Amino acid sequence: MYRAFLFTTLLPTILLAKIIAAELVELESSRIIRRHQQYRQAVKSSNMIKAAWSEELADKAKSMLSTCPVDVQNLEKEAENSQLGMNIGFSSSVNPSRIRMPDNLPIGIVDLWGSQRANFQLSRGCTQDNCMEYLRMISAGMHKLGCAMAKCAEDSIMVCLYEDVTKIDEKAPYKLGKSCSECTADFPNCELGMCAPMPGAGRPAGEPDIMPQKPSIRPTPAPSPQQPPEVQPDTPPPQVQEKRAEPREEEKDEVLLSARGSDGDEPTTTSRGALSVLGLFNGFPLLVGTALLHLGYSS
């Protein structure tokens, strides 16, 4: 039997409070899967599997959000019946008709789940408060995930579904050891320090292999002798323009988890598995929170 705990911040009475048609938001799957991989790479695991994006799971998450569900426990039961793990996050705006959803909101929600790693210790489990959303993200056996986001009046709700994480060993979600030292026959390769399938095997249709093919090296023929070019003394030297370095992908994905309000005060935060941020986006206040669904076994 499962117990569900729903944590809200500042606006508990409006969270998922209306039955309306959902406005589905197009997500950048590459950014979401990359963020999950970064959290999975950060642990020293000998059997961590390199997760892949699943359009099937993403479509199922869209279906679950299509009517802006008012009962989160129904979502929990639907995921449980499908033998899937599920994380839920949300954002509530003060004035939804005049504010645009920030582009980095989905990554911010993933980072809020990831921040629960402060509550986890290997062999001890969740040492304080909740850490189950984080455990679903870094469970070694999880190899497919799909997410969806929908706008429901003043709320934006995001659901991520995970395959093979219905029964997580809270104290040992992965094996401690050298990277890729305990990969299985289904995931024999090692990519980015994680176990991966053979190139082209077990990947969704249309998804390219992560590991590029080695280019063939051909010997370069020796240049034929030639006269040096004649130098024109009146030719001015070429102008060299400084090329600015492009920001790294990690910098692009960084999410500012603190902001100042219009009056200059720091936002209120909570340590019980939830975070709210009062900031400015396009000149209007945005209240960001998270509803964290805790799927655990009752004693």
What is the radius of gyration? 24 Å
Report the biggest beta sheet as strand number plus sense, adding barrel if it closes.
Answer: 7 strands, mixed
CATH superfamily: CAP
Query: Tell me, what's the shape?
Result: globular
What is the name of the CATH class? Alpha Beta
Integer tally of domains = 1
Q: What percentage of the residues does DSSP assign to strands (E)?
A: 15-25%
Distance between the termini: 9 Å
Number of helices: 6
Give the second-level CATH assignment, the architecture: 3-Layer(aba) Sandwich
Protein name: Cysteine-rich venom protein Mr30
InterPro entries: CAP_dom, CAP_sf, CRISP-related
Keywords: Signal
Pfam families: CAP (PF00188)
